[in-house]
């Protein structure tokens, strides 16, 4: 059994993590296990739905409770983890991600209990990536160490900005100094395994000052950075303030410039942009997120969590998109009654899955390799689908897209406008799919 | 319900007044009209008569003998006035005074029945009423021939006036002479009618009738003692207007014993009875059963019904020379009873009355349903409206961007606006109306083209048909003679405006100490969009404007293309005067820039004349268009959004490789209302 060894201490994890990175690097270059193995593997996402305070920009599924019955929540997370793992027939869990909400508000004991449940139901290798999202104020060093002891081996810090005024605008509870202190402590505990989130494109934010703060951050950060452009979501306080005219609307031109300059600065600092918003050096890519972009299976546990897997345990053949019940109390009731709180299941058709392979895969720097594509669509090659299209050809000509012996991927410029490219690529895929000869009867 | 779209208002009003207390009443007695001279008709009786008209046939009514009115006891007149000077209120009083309608507080713009007419204080569709009036022991037949109040309808006005011998020229005692007063006066003057100036609204606090008397003397050369000062609202001195009509307007010079010669001066359509033609008899007699011929179409009809309008149709045995009334003769379409046409008896042809023209549209605009699924509804609404207005020309049109629609021709701007407003108000149709254009002409020099068109001078309605300069000896554009009356403090600004609109000043006269009348020759296309609004705003609403057709003048016209990255955009081709090309081109480019979504490459928007670029705007390429966060929970939502966008993209019109949404075309093509 892997888990006891894994939980032995931070040192053992650090060693395991290094091995994991080497493997991931090989995978990133295109080596993939067989399809049969793929259906038995999954990533696991665990949603902790509670926050201390509402951030002004956030429209995620989160709740500001008066008191949390953590024991009940823990027990339900454990139950649902076991139920869904059995349902999926997954044998091997390659990454676990505790997101939220603010999962660092949960006790390390809860994290440990979930990981234990995973290890009891399926195989959780020692080198599995176990990430915890961390909010700087809720994470003193001692607590981070306790999470480490519980099995967490990677931290993702929601730092967002190094400007106190901006942090206030975003409704964050921490200061820039809090964030830097948490970052330093995290690096001490999880060297090479700490990520920070930084936002761009805030109302009234200017390119120069933002770039200088990015520079500051690059001198202090670890090997992983995520750059996110703020998107104003309906229903958030920030959206309302911009609507009212109390705040200027973010300028998309400036955001585009910050993004381009930011990418360049990160490249300069030795980071590989392995996805639209994600940068890593020394091979410190996030295995868990990589699974999303490669359309691997993932199981979502907790209120409002999303999953995509084949329910093999229940005799299912097609991949399903699943959503768990949003509201924590209702979700808990359902878990207690049925062992899980799945609210919505919908089968993904073959074309739908291919569309996701395309849209997600192109977010990465390697794009869609021929081998990767073939695992999902053995009949039509990437060349068959896109090679003859004039519209696609125009994108290749423009240098936004590349289609070669490695596969289909965005260029540096193309990655920034991927959503526009997809408006040409998705209809082309649909067209090719409709023209394709009917698939041979399985097993026939 | 027997409510013809064009004529129902009167009855509707009467009905509304009657219905509340009406239930269970005894059947209506026979209508008392015309009754003893000067008799007042009770409101209930009038209403009952109206109801009678709705539910029973006209035959039930007692027919009126019109032979009692020889020509010398007849006066045919119109009321003409600037907007809001009180023409309709005066008409209401005259109808009341002669007992034609009951005196109630509800008589407001009785002859203006369309919602748009009463909202705008204008008359679009002429209404006529025969008034019976006893004066010094004699019974007179006074035919009030109401005219459209705007020169857009100047042809209709001129036809109506040709059935008259005199006019009441109503001028507001406060506002004085306005542009439309002048235009209307000259129409009457040219028709050699007696003009009776009526100064209205003397009850207003700021009324200055003496000043208006002087203006009338100066501008129209009418002696001051001929002005009648009244308050139509209060009824003050209105009786003397009637006396003046009898004393100062001559009776029609006609002969009852000559063969029939009748002028069609208006026509409406009733879906049950067909066309109802309003006629003025110049000679002869007409009765049910007569066979009549249209001088214009040469078609023969049998008369089913004749009568007078009071203002509802009141059947009579006959109509006699000098009288005005209506005639129904199995015409199926208003184009069979065109305004200005002459009717005569079968086998007794007469010289047609002069001045007949088919309606000539001066302003064209494309009309498209906002949603193509509304096409058939809009089509039927347009058909219904044009049943009563044969002056609107309708041609089917197809735009790559806006879909199937029509190119409509109107008599003028107001006519166009009124038509559009009626579509919206009466038929609840919402439409895209493109920027109006005017009919240009080209005099061809190329023998080949002349052969092709079979004429030397061609009218260009669609810019795509604009012939090349090398094949043309000259281009012509329609011009109008505009009259502007303004307080003198605005002269400077108005002159600048006119200059900017390529206008040539023809005349400038002070009509009193501080009011000026300016006359300008203006290219019609310079006023079709926003001239009137600009004039109103720069004069704080005090300047008035009116215009009349002044033919065509030579113009240096060019065809301007709009290009997107070098590709021509068919639907945006514009004919423009050389001097205006830059301004117009720049405005189109700017509007396009604001409405074209960014794409993956830069878009150059250019306005060009031939190969010369005269304006340019650029839409920059997308620099960033990718969702920042895309993890487990975001995927479903993102895929949905992308697929919806991809679906929408398929519907976009492609110009070269540029995708242009319909909205962008609408923003460029649509009439700009708010400036």
From TrEMBL, chain A:
GO biological process terms, semicolon-separated: porphyrin-containing compound biosynthetic process
Gene Ontology terms for molecular function: 4 iron, 4 sulfur cluster binding; coproporphyrinogen oxidase activity; metal ion binding
Matching InterPro entries: Aldolase_TIM, Coproporphyrinogen-III_oxidase, Elp3/MiaA/NifB-like_rSAM, HemN_C, HemW-like, rSAM, rSAM_sf
Domain Radical SAM core: 36-272
Alphabetized UniProt keyword annotations: 4Fe-4S, Chaperone, Heme, Iron, Iron-sulfur, Metal-binding, Mitochondrion, S-adenosyl-L-methionine, Transit peptide
Listed SMART domains: Elp3 (SM00729)
Superkingdom per UniProt: Eukaryota
Location of this chain's protein in the cell: Mitochondrion
Sequence similarity: Belongs to the anaerobic coproporphyrinogen-III oxidase family. HemW subfamily.
Functional note: May be a heme chaperone, appears to bind heme. Homologous bacterial proteins do not have oxygen-independent coproporphyrinogen-III oxidase activity. Binds 1 [4Fe-4S] cluster. The cluster is coordinated with 3 cysteines and an exchangeable S-adenosyl-L-methionine.
Listed name of the protein: Radical S-adenosyl methionine domain-containing protein
Organism, scientific name: Pipistrellus kuhlii
Organism lineage: Eukaryota, Metazoa, Chordata, Craniata, Vertebrata
Automatic annotation (TrEMBL), chain B:
Keyword GTP-binding: yes
Limits of the Tr-type G domain: 72-253
Residues reported to bind GTP: 81-88, 146-150, 200-203
Membrane topology: Peripheral membrane protein
Gene Ontology CC: one annotated term: mitochondrial inner membrane
Region (Disordered): 21-40
Alphabetical keyword list: GTP-binding, Hydrolase, Membrane, Mitochondrion, Mitochondrion inner membrane, Nucleotide-binding, Protein biosynthesis
GO biological process: positive regulation of translation; translation
The keyword Hydrolase is annotated on this UniProt entry: yes
Biased composition (Pro residues): 26-37
Gene Ontology MF, one: GTPase activity
Protein localization: Mitochondrion inner membrane
Reaction catalysed by this enzyme: GTP + H2O = GDP + phosphate + H(+)
Functional note: Promotes mitochondrial protein synthesis. May act as a fidelity factor of the translation reaction, by catalyzing a one-codon backward translocation of tRNAs on improperly translocated ribosomes. Binds to mitochondrial ribosomes in a GTP-dependent manner.
Family in the record: Belongs to the TRAFAC class translation factor GTPase superfamily. Classic translation factor GTPase family. LepA subfamily.
Protein name: GUF1-like protein, GTPase
Organism field: Pipistrellus kuhlii (Kuhl's pipistrelle)
Source organism phylogeny: Eukaryota, Metazoa, Chordata, Craniata, Vertebrata
